[in-house]
Amino acid sequence: MPRSIWGGAISFGLVNVPVKLVSAVSPKDVRFHQLDAKSNARVKQKRVSAETGEEVAFENIVKGYEIAPDQYVTITPEELESLDPKATKSIDIEDFVDLDQIDPVYFERSYYLVPDAGGAKAYALLVQAMKESGMIAIARMVLRTKQYLVALRAVGDVLVIETLYFNDEVVDPDELDGVPHDVDVSDRELKIARQLIESLATEFDPERYRDEYRERVLDLIEKKAEGQEIVLQPQTEEPAQVVDLMAALEASLAAVKDAKDEAKPAPKKKK
Asked: Dihedral of the CA atoms 87, 146, 14, 93 (nearest 10)?
């Protein structure tokens, strides 16, 4: 069972709902260590001065912010601590908005909020009210000395909290190079493209999607641990650049139709 990483309360007007914060995700990355190729011993990293090449003791290391090439302003832990947001142990709701008003690019990380002792009824009330309103809450909270902007939403009987990027952390699409504008698209091309989208449309089922690369890496590790000989597979060729867009659309639509026809169960023979 996931353990709580924070405890506090949702501040909703004059109502406080005691809650605990639990991570909603458990990343499954395959992590490797750096080893000496000759001995397979772990390789340690040392903090070395770029000027002298000598190792620097941990107690002699300070934080510095680069303001120009090789020019730094040093900041002490005490100076940073004086600026830390006060840990209020409170999730302070400021606004309620429609979920579709928030671009997913703002979402950073997901957590579950579960009721703490004595908070079950107030928690259930907030969940039900938010579900009926169809809105989500925008709030602020302090987690590990950092203040976060968060979105709070009801999913089933559970409150989910999403940390959000602040507006100045999100790249404005207008700053991107190479984005096509005012491109002429024919009605026929648009029609085929929409038919292709509709032919691939389905209900989202997260269990259909797996990290196939991670599975192949773990399989490779298991085989090597068992002493099996590994035969490297040839690299797949990059797909050719589309020259005839209309022909590519029509071929894609036909391929999807053929795949669906093959997936259909064979008709039962009459007795």
From this structure: 180
Q: Which CATH architecture has domain 6-26+84-169?
A: Beta Barrel (2.40)
Cβ–Cβ under 8 Å, residues 18 and 117: yes
The sign of the torsion formed by the CA atoms of 168, 170, 175, 180 equals negative
Tell me the whole-structure pTM to 2 decimals.
Answer: 0.74
SS3 263: helix
Judging by beta carbons within 10 Å of its beta carbon (0-12, 13-18, 19+), is residue 266 exposed, middle or buried? exposed
Q: What is the pLDDT of residues 38-66, one digit of tens each?
A: 999 999 888 999 889 899 999 999 999 99
What gap in Å lies between CA 33 and CA 45, rounded to an integer?
11
According to DSSP, the residues that pair with 35 across neighbouring strands are 42
In whole angstroms, give the CA distance from residue 73 to residue 11.
Answer: 38
13-22, 70-79, 81-90, 215-224: segment of lowest average pLDDT: 81-90
Q: What is the pLDDT of residue 45?
A: 87
Q: Where are the domains of the chain?
A: 6-26+84-169, 187-229+248-261
